[in-house]
């Protein structure tokens, strides 16, 4: 019976982690909750859950972080300061497609606010990981990556050049030829985000 008792403790802990992170992701979808979540120290609690052994917990943690970072620059800076970006970049090459979509969403949510935050995403090594995701089979992963790359490139010529140098353009052009309409639209939008800065 002692082994069973031990197992029960672990099962309960897993259920509670999942419930916590799903609830936080749900709370993060409403702007009125953001300040309270931040005051409760949500970033430092979500960070270890990105490394959880259970994929569903990892994905929900990334989704929650993306929603938080999406709201304002302060939350996005908090993601950067919490050293979460390298973890996401690592996960883009290691994890399943659901997690890749969530991780790319966080990178996009951070990058959108300012050239400085987009530069932080670039400095974390995200470009190569995102470009590799453009070669994935899953259209949702390609879409999430194209979206993130466009958000990085739109700020200025230097960031757009970094996206070009990472080899994104030929792959985005291929995405524009895919059957999925939403992927084509996002890839075309990313190409325009890259191209708008200069004739080159």
Automatic annotation (TrEMBL):
| Any GO BP | cilium movement
Q: Which gene encodes it?
A: SPAG6_2
Taken from the UniProt entry, a GO cellular component term is:
microtubule cytoskeleton
Record organism: Rhizophlyctis rosea
Q: Which InterPro entries does the UniProt entry name for this protein?
A: ARM-like, ARM-type_fold, Armadillo
Say which domain of life the source belongs to: Eukaryota
List, in alphabetical order, the Gene Ontology terms for molecular function in this entry.
microtubule binding
PANTHER family documented for this protein: SPERM-ASSOCIATED ANTIGEN 6, SPERM-ASSOCIATED ANTIGEN 6 ARMADILLO REPEAT-CONTAINING
Q: What is this protein called?
A: Sperm-associated antigen 6
What lineage does the source organism belong to?
Eukaryota, Fungi, Fungi incertae sedis, Chytridiomycota, Chytridiomycota incertae sedis
Pfam families given in the database record: Arm
């Amino acid at each position: 019976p002692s082994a069973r008792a031990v197992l029960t403790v672990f099962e309960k802990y897993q259920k509670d982690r999942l419930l916590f992170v799903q609830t936080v992701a749900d709370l993060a979808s409403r702007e009125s909750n953001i300040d309270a979540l931040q005051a409760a120290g949500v970033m430092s609690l979500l960070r270890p859950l990105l490394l959880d052994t259970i994929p569903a917990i990892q994905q929900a943690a990334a989704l929650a972080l993306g929603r938080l970072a999406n709201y304002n620059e302060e939350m996005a800076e908090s993601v950067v300061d919490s050293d979460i970006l390298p973890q996401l970049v690592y996960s883009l090459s290691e994890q399943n497609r659901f997690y890749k979509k969530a991780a790319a969403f966080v990178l996009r949510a951070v990058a959108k606010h300012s050239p400085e935050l987009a530069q932080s995403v670039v400095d974390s090594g995200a470009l190569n990981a995102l470009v590799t995701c453009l070669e994935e089979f899953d259209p949702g992963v390609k879409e999430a990556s194209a979206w993130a790359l466009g958000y990085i490139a739109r700020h200025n010529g230097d960031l757009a050049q970094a996206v070009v140098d990472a080899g994104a353009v030929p792959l985005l052009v291929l995405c524009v030829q895919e059957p999925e309409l939403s992927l084509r639209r996002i890839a075309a939008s990313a190409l325009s985000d890259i191209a708008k800065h200069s004739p080159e």
